[in-house]
Description:
Structural class: mainly alpha
Distance between the termini: 40 Å
Radius of gyration: 30 Å
Number of strands: 8
Helix content: 40-55%
Number of helices: 6
Strand order of the largest sheet: 1-8
Strand content: 5-15%
Oligomer: single chain
Shape: elongated
Amino acid sequence: MAIRDRRTASAGMSLAKGPVSIVGMILLAYGVTGLIFGGNTFDSSPLDGTVDGDTWLGIEGNGWSNLLAIGAGGVLMFGAQMHWSAKTTALLVGLAFAAAAIIALVDGADVLGIFAANDATKLAWAITAAVLVIVALLPRVGRTTDEPATTAAEPAAVTERAAADDPRFDRGRDPATEETAVAEHRVERRP
């Protein structure tokens, strides 16, 4: 009987997981410290009003702006555990920050009367959006597949013979002389 060769594969290393978790930690830390030391009022004037906040590290924000940073950071850190979720959350949060930056640019002083924003806030949101969208496009690297070793003299014939001798494929079995798999596993009934 031939020895079975196992083929193992490595999915490779994700280039998205690390940056997504780092951006998530930065957003989470900024949002929490912004609530403590910066804007912590939850005043709003939805859709048509203007809302102002306090500045922390040059970025203007109110309580809603800081909660946006906390929520985005938490979602990114939660999603950074697996490659596909890191890419998905990076893309979604990046698009949300891009939308917030564009709306703040159009509105001038805030986002829909809820999130306070100055020029530094708009720039920070735009940079965060760009970084997250770029990170969402990063692939896995180092994907390997270990093929069974064959020599140059016997390239594919070795694996063909191994597959022919392998009972899983039922090659080389003569149905006229051997019982079939169903008959081998038949259970006799007793009256």
